[in-house]
Amino acid sequence: MAQLSSCQLIASANQKHRALLLWLGALILLGSVLAGQLWLVVIKTQLMLVSVSGIVLMTIGLSRYLEPANSLSVESESLRYFHRYGQWSVSWHTVQRIFVPSFHYQLERQDIPFIGIKLNQIEQIANQVSPRLASRLLHEQRAILVLAVQQGDITMEQAQLNFSPFKMTQGYELTGPIAAWMHQMHALHQAYGAHLFIPLNCIEQSSDELIKLLEQYRRASLTQEE
């Protein structure tokens, strides 16, 4: 196996074209304002639509500046995921499997646009996520929960937000968004076999390339422990 660096950063795809979108939106908005000085009465509705388009592009461009520069930090001992609302990390010895989750529709396998990570213990992650990030992930993963219900992999009750306390093996209980996220991880694991989900639209590499890289680091870490 080739020598791996102690840390590799995976750039966020959300950073792409942010300046282009911002400036394009600004130019469209400026052009519509200038045109309005001359032909406002004649093409008022059209100019309003063009102005809205410019504002939308500027908003998208500005929002991308708020996204983290990197989506992942692949380290010799752990994997770290960066999100606009926080981050989580897991040690390689807790990672059991890395794959693209899928479901079957009309006898055909359909992948969902995520990298799935199956853990051999999920309680470690509870200390690695903030309530703010947990709350965001609860809502971002609703679509794949609904899909799992439609496919009959989980029940409607399992897909509902569950804010009841989550009891840890150490004896204490988690409450709030983190508890709800832990309950949701159980439901997602039943549906897709993974606990953590990294959206493919936030990374530049293909899913195959990323999985290969992550597996190299995972195997290298496990080899060092033996």
Describe this protein's structure.
With 226 residues, the protein is α+β, with helices and mostly antiparallel strands. The chain folds into two domains: 13-65, no CATH class; 70-225, no CATH class. It has eight helices and eleven strands. The chain has helices at 18-39, 44-65, 123-126, 131-140, 142-150, 156-159, 176-192, 207-225; strands at 7-11, 70-75, 78-83, 86-91, 95-99, 102-105, 108-111, 114-119, 166-167, 173-174, 196-199. The strands form four sheets. It has a four-stranded antiparallel β-sheet, covered by helices on one side. Strands 5-8-11 form a three-stranded antiparallel β-sheet, sandwiched between helices. It has a two-stranded antiparallel ribbon with strand order 6-7. α1 (18-39) runs antiparallel to α2 and α4 (131-140) packs parallel to α7 (176-192). The longest helix has 22 residues, at 18-39. The radius of gyration is 22 Å and the shape is globular. The model has no long low-confidence stretch (mean pLDDT 81).
Annotation field: number of helices: 8
Q: What is the total number of structural domains?
A: 2
- Classify the oligomer: single chain
| Total number of beta strands | 11
Class by alpha and beta content: alpha+beta
The profile of the biggest β sheet is: 4 strands, antiparallel
Distance between the termini: 16 Å
**Rg to the nearest angstrom?**
22 Å
Strand order of the largest sheet: 1-2-3-4
Q: Which residue ranges are poorly predicted, with pLDDT under 50 across at least 5 consecutive positions?
A: none
| Element-by-element helix/strand order | EHHEEEEEEEHHHHEEHEH
Question: Which whole number gives the mean pLDDT?
Answer: 81
Beta-strand portion reads 15-25%
The global form is: globular
Helix percentage range:
40-55%
